[in-house]
Amino acid sequence: MTRTLLFDIDGTLIDAAGAGRVAMDRALREAFGIEPTIPIAFGGRTDRSLLSEMLSVHGVEVSESTFAKIRATFACGLLEELHLSTGRILPGVEDLLRQLATLPHLRLWCMTGNLVETAQGKLRHFGLLDYFDHVVGGDHDADRSDLARRAHSDLRSVHGDDAAKDVMVIGDTVADIVCARAIGAKVIACCTGCHSREILEAANPCMIVDDFSDTSSIVQLLLS
Asked: The domain that contains 204 carries what CATH number?
């Protein structure tokens, strides 16, 4: 049976150095002429949730039309901000993905809170997009567990029911751990994002790693 690995992006594969936050503030200015004044918390959330809150707390009615407007502006601006940022691929990620891509019984998907277009843009910017067969983004789901359920459903639709029986989530936040449980998946947490080891341990993932530097050990862990 082929195991599917569902990788998060921000804080797991890359550090975008705040490009997303800058682009979101910029989108509010450009799309609605509003200067952002109220900060919102990012870690582990979907862009559906973040962009909707950005509109709401700044007095813009959240509707499909206002969401579509800020989404398009944000997606365009983010790609520009990535080129201006000091973002980087996190330790060991390139070697890890390169090795995983050669293994016949692994399937690499990306499950991220990013919009699909911004997820693909980030991965392309850092040269990682070709490692992934499919990207499931946070376009529709405000809740991360609903995102995981949609990824699980997509997996069954594309590869059949058996494909959903062996799934592992790899992420850097408590939300990644919680959403993995929502679909009965194993989960490995990495301490490369916004949550400390202590916070991640309290959420009881299957395993915690500091980062992906010890590539051979991580490969064995993902195969175990």
From this structure: 3.40.50.1000
Domain range enclosing 101: 3-16+88-223
% of the chain exceeding 70 in pLDDT: 100
Q: Note whether 117 and 139 are within 8 A (CB).
A: no
Question: Could you give the count of Cα atoms lying within 13 Å of 90 in the half-sphere of its Cβ?
Answer: 25
Cα–Cα nearest to 205, from 182, 167, 174: 174
Question: Structurally, how many domains does the chain consist of?
Answer: 2
CA distances to 42, 82, 97 from 117, rounded to whole Å, are 18, 14, 21
Token pair of 70, please?
């800020």
Q: Kindly report whether the global pTM for this prediction surpasses the value 0.85.
A: yes
Task: Work out the average pLDDT over 20-40.
Answer: 93
Question: For residue range 158-205, what is the model confidence (pLDDT) as tens digits?
Answer: 999 998 999 999 999 999 999 999 999 999 999 999 899 999 999 999
Do 8 and 71 share a domain, yes or no? Answer: no
75 neighbors 121 (Cβ within 8 angstroms)? yes
Q: With beta carbons less than 8 A apart as the criterion, state whether 28 and 54 touch.
A: yes
Whether the CB-CB separation of 144 and 10 falls below 8 Å is answered with: no
Are 208 and 156 members of one domain? yes
Task: Please enumerate in sequence order all residues whose Cβ is within 8 A of that of 50, keeping only pairs 6 or more positions apart, or say none.
Answer: 24, 40, 42, 113
Q: Which has more pLDDT, 44 or 108?
A: 108
